[in-house]
Amino acid sequence: MKRIDALTAVYSRLQDRIVVTIMGAVAAELQSIGHRPNFFYLQHAMGLASSMGLGIALCRPDRQVIVLDGDGSLLMNLGGLTTLARYRPRNLVHVVFDNESLLSVGGFPTATSTGSDLAAIAKAAGVPRTATARTLDEFTRAFDEALAAGELTTIVAKVEAVGPSAFVTDLGLLENRFQFQRYLAP
Amino acid sequence: MSHKPPVWASGVCAGIHAIGSRDVVYVPDNPLSYVLRVFESEYREVRLILATREEEAFGIAAGLYLGGRRPTVMCQSSGIGNSLNAITSLLVPYEIPLLMVVSWRGDDAGEWNAAQRPMGQAVRAIFDAIGVAHATIPSPDAALDTVRRVGETAFRTNTLGACLLPRAMTTVTAS
Prior knowledge:
Chain A has 186 residues and is an alpha/beta fold. Chain A has 8 helices and 8 strands, in the order αβαβαβααβββαβαβα. Chain A has a single domain (3-184), classed as 3-Layer(aba) Sandwich (Rossmann fold). In chain A, the strands form 2 sheets. In chain A, strands 2-1-3-4-8-7 form a 6-stranded parallel sheet, with helices on both faces. Chain A has a two-stranded antiparallel sheet with strand order 5-6. The N and C termini of chain A lie far apart (37 Å). Chain B is globular, with a radius of gyration of 15 Å. Chain A binds chain B through residues 20, 40, 42-60, 77, 79-80, 82-83, 86-87, 173-174, 176-177, 180-181, 184-186, and chain B through 23, 25, 47, 49-53, 55-56, 58-69, 71, 85-86, 89-90, 93-96.
């Protein structure tokens, strides 16, 4: 499964939901499919996409929040899984694109390439629903089930370690932030 | 058995409340536990969110802000060291404001742990270097006003403001 195909497959469900992504390939690929004011791209601060998603989900229970995370990023904030589980927002779906590598800095293999299982770690942290998807069909099914379940879910999507040729986009950080904040304004 | 909370702790809570902050994301320490107890007993509408480490607290707070809230982060000065990447690559460039209430370890009056000294001695210079406005609460009676002023400035100007709680104030509790 390629990440861009997974993003394309669920894009229609992202269009009207709050989306927080990590930097690098995920941000660039989602923007290449189509930027929306309800998409926030965390262009650094590795590990904190799930934390930002938690903050939004806690104060906006009226909205469904989708976090698009990666294995390298999540490995920098494994403790955050325990915080997600502790506060257990029912409106948060946490997707981890796991390509078993730090793709944007040269493809160095991460711990998921040597056996660490992020879905099992999330489950053991107390996340009530977890799933691992290895094909596009499995991913779209797991994603739609998570949206319907109304329960905190972490989905680990195993994807190929391929991405776009460039990660830089023309969307400025402040433009992104103010668009997003205005979209979220109660 | 009831204990009257220290004046400085009541002042910190009143200051945070006065600026409309209803979400406090924290990593606790002994002085901050007084503040947390005042929130729990007197400000039930303030949501307290416990993070595993300080950088995570700033990430959660950034989400709360963009969701429409006025978050406060409370941690020890050592935790500012844990958070520099979140502050400089998320809060500063995206102009996400928040109030920090920092229990100051390693200052010149009242530290026993040598491992707290280097960061405690550097924290104000680090705040200066990364553009975080900061004020040291000079006395218990000034806590409310200092927190309110620093917080109001941060949220009005989309910047970061920190209030340092010195040990000489927070550890004098015997009476």
